[in-house]
Amino acid sequence: MFVRFHTVPSLFNDIFSQSESFDSAFPLTMPNMNVWKRSSEYPYVNVAEYKNEIQVVAEIPGVPKENVRLQYHDGMLTISGERKAPEQKEKSDWLRQEILYGSFSRTIQLPEKVNAEKISAEHSNGVLRVTLPKAEEVKPKDITIR
Questions:
Q1: How far apart are CA 139 and CA 124, in angstroms?
Q2: What pLDDT score does 61 carry?
Q3: Strand, helix or coil at 103?
Q4: ∠ Cα 45 47 106 (to 5°)
Q5: Residue 39: Cβ within 10 Å count
Q6: CB-based burial, 108-126: b 16+ in 10 Å, e otherwise
Q7: Conformational region of residue 44, where left means phi above 0, alpha means psi within -120 to 50, and beta covers everything else
Q8: Which of the residues 32, 87, 94, 104 has an alpha carbon 20 to 30 A from that of 116?
Q9: Could you tell me the pTM of the whole model?
Q10: What's the whole-number mean pLDDT along residues 17-29?
Q11: With b meaning 16 or more CB within 10 Å and e meaning fewer, what string describes 40-71?
Q12: What pLDDT is recorded for position 68?
């Protein structure tokens, strides 16, 4: 008896395409568990390279700048901090909890050497912008043709 090959992948796709039932099997709220562990890629970042600098933009809504720490070491930028949960007036049970609270840390490997002494950072409206000037030895140099 022959079995069509596509029946197995189809069954697999059918199971995981039912997102509502999959979500109910793995709820977003898990008591006594650090919810940051759900996403190892937080905060979400954009990294852009320009001629003279590298810029890292991170989304950290609800995290005041006092709760953010930046570290640069050996070509790696680490953004860490903590978003504290608001106090609840009364004890309640969560019906759905998608906003993440707690400590976070993300390390980004940078493509070029930077001048660590001139790194600057701004925090505004939940967006962290880190400017990392490239080291002189890696900046492109214009060559005059004779």
A1: 29
A2: 92
A3: strand
A4: 45
A5: 12
A6: eebeebbeeeebeeebeee
A7: beta
A8: 104
A9: 0.66
A10: 51
A11: eebbebebeeeeebbebbbebeebeeeebeee
A12: 95
Alpha helices (runs of H) in 1-146, residue ranges in sequence order: 7-17, 19-25
The closest alpha carbon to 50, from 139, 113, 123, 122, belongs to: 139
Measured distance between the N- and C-terminal CA atoms of the chain, rounded to whole angstroms: 78
CB 69 within 8 A of CB 81: yes
Separation of alpha carbons 53 and 67, rounded Å: 26
CATH topology of domain 36-85+101-138: Immunoglobulin-like (2.60.40)
Largest Cα–Cα distance of the chain, in whole Å?
A: 78
Q: Which two structure tokens, joined as six digits, stand for 109?
A: 């490997």
C-beta of residue 131 within 8 angstroms of C-beta of residue 57: no
Q: Which of 74, 65, 60, 54 is nearest to 134 (CA)?
A: 54
Structure tokens at 133: 């000037």
